[in-house]
Structures are given as structure tokens and as C-alpha cells.
Amino acid sequence: MNIADSFVSNYAWIFAVLPIIAWLLSFRRRVDQDDRDHEALTNIHREMKKIKLVRETSYAIFFIPSILVVWGGLSLFSSVFNAFTELEGVYVFRTNIVFLAVPSIFLGVFLAMLPARILSIYRLGDGIYRDYERLESKSRFNAKRFGWLLFIIYGIPTLFLALSSFNTYVRITPDEFIFNDVLGFGEKSYRFDQISEVNIWDSCVRQNGKRTNARSVIVFDDGYEYRFINSTAKIDFLYQKHIIEYMTRDNSSTIDFNIRNGC
Predict the structure, then answer these.
(1) Lowest mean pLDDT: which of 54-63, 69-78, 122-131?
(2) What is the pLDDT of residues 146-194, one digit of tens each?
(3) Rounded distance, CA 186 to CA 179, Å?
(4) Residue 188 near residue 180, CB atoms below 8 Å
(5) Would you say residue 35 has pLDDT above 60?
(6) What is the pLDDT of residue 31?
(7) Hey, what CATH topology would domain 169-261 get?
(8) Residues in contact with 217: Cβ distance below 8 Å, sequence separation at least 6, in sequence order
(9) Low-confidence winner among 30-34, 64-68, 102-106, 189-193 (lowest mean pLDDT)
(10) Do the beta carbons of residue 196 and residue 255 sit within 8 Å?
(11) Which of 40, 122, 205, 220 is the most buried (most CB within 10 A)?
(12) Which range, 57-66, 86-95, 177-186, 236-245, has the best average confidence (pLDDT)?
């Protein structure tokens, strides 16, 4: 199990607890309202349905485009990075751009807020929207603080993982298996003669009708297990078999091969 897998399995609960803490930290003492606030509150109550509709539709307009902008930007950056950091090997696999879809969704959620706010101000008028934000800032729940805390909890780590994934890869030279995982903190390599075990699970259809994915795991003599399924390169099972056949062609007699039913 690599560092990234260990972190996810042991500390994933933190990302479920932190939003609750952020929500509690976003409450504050109610701020007294002045006469101007009472007048603005009357106007806002009269326009509340319109305000909510404009805010929600404005966000909906920019939600998908924001995700696509982030995904396109990350994909372009990844392509440029790959062009300037060419890797040599018989097989070379970089991070699949599909992997960037998840961070693009997370970051797109936050990015869409800015153009949505600008459009809302344009459609509602600067005065009423500013009054709405001012009164909202005086409520007990500070939505703006909650949003920033969520960005710190999810947005920044997501951006870090996306950027670090650009330098993750799997490459096979004539005599070594070399890889660099997300949160792996550096390249790791093994000689082919260090492979002690290969486990392969075939795809099958369970009784409930669901098909399991074929997968393979390489175990090295120090106990380290490389799981292709966890690679950001998303290496196809057919390529996994080619890689295993290539690496074990000269020392298959010393390796324990286990082919199992995926069900």
C-alpha cells in the first residue's frame, strides 16, 4: 500500500468531520441592525423570490462552463508539462486526463461563484444586491466565511492533488519498473528480479448482475504492492498484462503467479 492509499484509508474521515466544524465556526453573535437595514429588509423581503431565482439561475448558468474551463486549463497545463518532461522507457504512462475530472468539478464549484455574483448584481441592480449581502453578513450564520472554509478544506487540497498528478507516471525500462505516485514523494523503482508475486483477478459477472473489473497487483521482495487500479494513469488491463509479461519474461520461474476469480 502506497502513501496515498494509506492516507485515504486512515484519514478520509477528517474530510467528513471538517465541514461540520466549519459550519459551527460560521455562526456568530447577531449584529444589531440600524434604520437603513430595516428599510432595506422591507425591500428585500418584497423581492426575495426574485433574488433567490436570479442567484440560483446565475449560478446554474456558470456551473458547467466553470468546470469545463478548469478541466481545460488543467489538461492544457498537463500537456505542456508532459512536453517539457519527456520520459524514456519501453512503456510510458502519464496521468490520464480523465483523472482531472474530479478536481475540475470541485474547483468549478468555487469558480462559478464569481461570475454568478457579477451576473446577479447586473440583473438585480447594485443597490438591492448590496443590501442583500449587507443584511446577510449581519445574520447569525456567516455564509461567506463558511464558503471560504470549505474552499480551504476541499479546494486547496484538490488543487494540490491536481497539480501533483502532473508529475505522476509509470514507465518500464528494459530492466526496471519505475513509478511516481500522487503523494508518493518521489520516484520509486524496482528491478524485474525483485518481483516476488503477481496477482491477477479476472473480470466476471456476479449474481446481482454487476461486472467486476479485471485488475492486477505486483508484489516486490520488500513487500511493497503496486496496484494498477490506483494509478492515475488508468492503465488498461490489456496493457497491464503486456507489462507483466514483459517484466517477467526472464524470471517467471521464480515468481508466484496467482490468477483468481474476480467475483
Answers:
(1) 122-131
(2) 888 888 888 888 888 787 787 888 889 999 999 887 766 678 899 999 9
(3) 9
(4) yes
(5) no
(6) 60
(7) PH-domain like (2.30.29)
(8) 198, 199, 225, 226, 227, 228
(9) 30-34
(10) yes
(11) 40
(12) 57-66
DSSP string, 106-137: HHHHHHTHHHHHHHHHHHH-HHHHHHHHHHHH
Cβ-contact 31, 141 below 8 angstroms: no
Task: Let me know: does 202 contact 258? Beta carbons within 8 Å.
Answer: no
Look at the block and give the residue holding cell 528494459. 174
Confidence (pLDDT) at 3: 47
Domain boundaries of the chain, sorted by first residue: 13-89+96-165, 169-261
pLDDT digits (tens, 9 = 90+) for 226-258: 988 878 788 888 889 889 999 998 888 888 888
Under 8 Å between Cβ of 25 and 149: yes
Among 97, 98, 96, which residue's Cα sits nearest to residue 235? 96
**C-alpha cell of residue 95:** 496521468
